[in-house]
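Predict structure. Chain length: 148.
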Amino acid sequence: MSDARVHLTPSGPPETILDPEPPQAVAALAAALAQPDDAKRDAVAQVVARFPRFLDGWARLGQLARDDAEAYAAFRVGYHRGLDRLRQNGWRGSGYVRWTHEVNRGFLRSLAGLQATAAAIGEHDEDERCLLFLHQLDPSWPPACLEG
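Prediction complete.
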């Protein structure tokens, strides 16, 4: 386990930056997302089957899900895998995990998707918990690209 990716900030808690995803996984996801709409979900599912620790793959699979139950499951896998990866990078249950770092976005997309899907299925306590967690991890949440 390495603490090298945890940085102290002058204004408060430490900041964790995840290790980069494998370049092959990033390339495979880009190719899958470039597929026609009717093939995209299955292509992304193949990426996460090949790279089950690839956080952005799970987040994108959740975004492409056929229904709320499938989305919830994919986002939850990405969220839990992300917690594991955060801990492997020195995160100790508190501190920032900011959107501004591209490598953190798969985890944050999974958590945001879990929050939105929990709201959609009426799991209000999970919705509120995830939204609070997002704001704790990145006080500027949501990033401009997700607003609206």
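Summary: The radius of gyration is 15 Å.
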